[in-house]
Specification:
mainly alpha, 5 helices, 0% strand, 137 residues, single chain, binds zinc ion
């Protein structure tokens, strides 16, 4: 006879509060980017990695990609930062699923963070190679 599997706990309220807090921050930033084009306004922070090295970090072009996404220009968003677009789609889908199903898992398990860091590292290397210039903003 096998022992009964352990019961899974629902996500705690801290996780839900963190998701709501992050969503609010995202929508405030999105509203600002929607109304103030990053290509025309100089108050947005400049990437210090790019300024110092001339290379593109995984976040370079993210603000312009968000602006393009918010204005329905998906191709321009992909040109500016494909990793950001893929990440937004993934997080939105995960958020909807998480909210709808209320699973007993974490919103973003730690092992996914390691996978994301690996993907971001590969993306960073590729976008700085001449053969993959299409990944640069
Ligand atoms: Zn950068």
């Amino acid at each position: 006879m096998h022992p009964a599997p352990p019961k899974l706990k629902r996500a705690n309220s801290n996780t839900r509060c963190a998701v709501i807090f992050l969503a609010i921050i995202f929508f405030v930033i999105a509203a600002m980017v929607f109304f103030f084009n990053p290509a025309q306004n100089k108050f947005y922070p400049v990437c210090q990695f790019h300024r110092l090295t001339g290379l593109n970090c995984p976040g370079c072009g993210m603000t312009r990609a968000l602006y393009a996404l918010l204005h329905g220009n998906i191709l321009a968003a992909l040109r500016d930062n494909a990793l950001f677009v893929a990440g937004i789609i993934f997080l939105a889908a995960r958020g909807v699923w998480f909210w709808w199903k209320r699973p007993a898992t974490e919103f973003f398990p730690v092992r996914w963070l390691w996978l994301f860091l690996l993907v971001a590292l590969v993306f960073t290397v590729l976008r700085n190679l001449p053969a993959f210039a299409f990944l640069s903003p």
